[in-house]
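Hey, I'm writing a tutorial for new members on how sequence and structure tokens pair up, and I'd like a real worked example in the thread rather than a made-up one. If someone can provide the structure for the chain below, I'll link this post from the tutorial.
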Amino acid sequence: MMAARTKHDTQKRTGAAKPVPIAQLRSGPDSQNQQESNSIPIWEWMVAGLGLVIVTAVLGFLLYEALRGNHLPPDVRLSVDSVARTGNGYLVKITAVNDGGSTAEGVIIEGQLKNGSDLVERSETTLDYLPPRSKKKAGLFFMKDPRQFELQVRPFGYEEP
């Protein structure tokens, strides 16, 4: 008895190859290595997620400040830090703080030395730019020693940007 020949046996003898789908050709060991090298590592996803959170938070804060921020006028407060002798007289170092919600430009700061009600000497300086909730240092020059008199410093005026 002769065994029935199958299609598979015929292909073996004739050398004809059965067509293989392209997906199977690409799923060999080389393609697996290529897929692994093309995949994104988990730490890159974590860094990208962190970047997204930071950018979203900054944009949210800017939007909040634009819509609900403090729009009060500048509120300039001055404090005397120190008095130092210079070659031409005395330097009074001061700190200007803007506690308000708006920027002040051209802030004029005036200092006066008084002896009772008499004005002994006057000095002034200008701060070009004082943003809200910020501070800047400045100085006033006097010919006479400010420690010998009553020193008064005050913001004299400003401009809106």
